[in-house]
Amino acid sequence: MSDYRTFLSDNLRRLRLACGYSQSNVAKALDMTRSNYSYYESGKTTPTLESLYKLSKIFGVTMEQIIVPEARLYPDIDFMRPEQLFSKEPQTIGELTSDEKDLIARLRSEKP
Asked: Which pTM does this prediction carry?
């Protein structure tokens, strides 16, 4: 079980970084505190099914890609935070302001 918990926490961090979100962006979209979300990435707690569903929408992946080790995306993403570059005409989410990322994450987490 601890191997799976480690996989899940590492994968959540990889996906978040690949999308250019901060823990605060994701936490706001899940309507929780940043510290509560950080427990998911540290492996202290595991997300509920509803949270996993919302995370899949926020990160633009399937739930399977979050929870099944063989379906993992971005295996080589470094654990370093992406450089914060903001653009007047952003091409990626990483170039958006924190407030813009919050809005996109919240919109993605909502049910259609």
From this structure: 0.70
